Amino acid sequence: DYVVLHEQVHLLHHNHSKQFWKAMDSVLPDWLVRKQELERDWVGLRVSLWRLRRRPPLAKGLPPRVRCRGDELPQVKLSEADRQ
After folding, report:
1. CB 25, CB 31: distance < 8 Å
2. What is the pLDDT of residues 46-70, one digit of tens each?
3. Which domain holds residue 61?
């Protein structure tokens, strides 16, 4: 909700002026809490994406038929660190 409304308010106010934040207050009174939650969750998402990029592709080294047909993909066991 926060991101969508933030961008919609930008249609009226093209910067982060006092008028912008007053408009945010009027359409989403708890915008600050939602912004903080988004920032907190974004950090976790960025760490997860970083972990995924460090891992080799799952299909590397598999025969072509396994890479092409989803029903033939092997089960992948993730470590506890990868599940977070």
Report:
1. yes
2. 767 766 666 655 555 555 544 444 4
3. 2-83
The count of domains in the chain is: 1
Note whether 19 and 13 are within 8 A (CB): yes
Q: Is the Cβ–Cβ distance between 23 and 7 less than 8 Å?
A: no
Angstrom distance (rounded) from CA 45 to CA 42: 5
Tokens of 50: 């970083």
Give the type of residue at 84: Q
| pTM recorded for the entire structure | 0.52
Alpha helices in the chain (DSSP H): 2-10, 18-27, 31-54, 64-68, 80-83
Cβ–Cβ < 8 Å for 5, 25: no
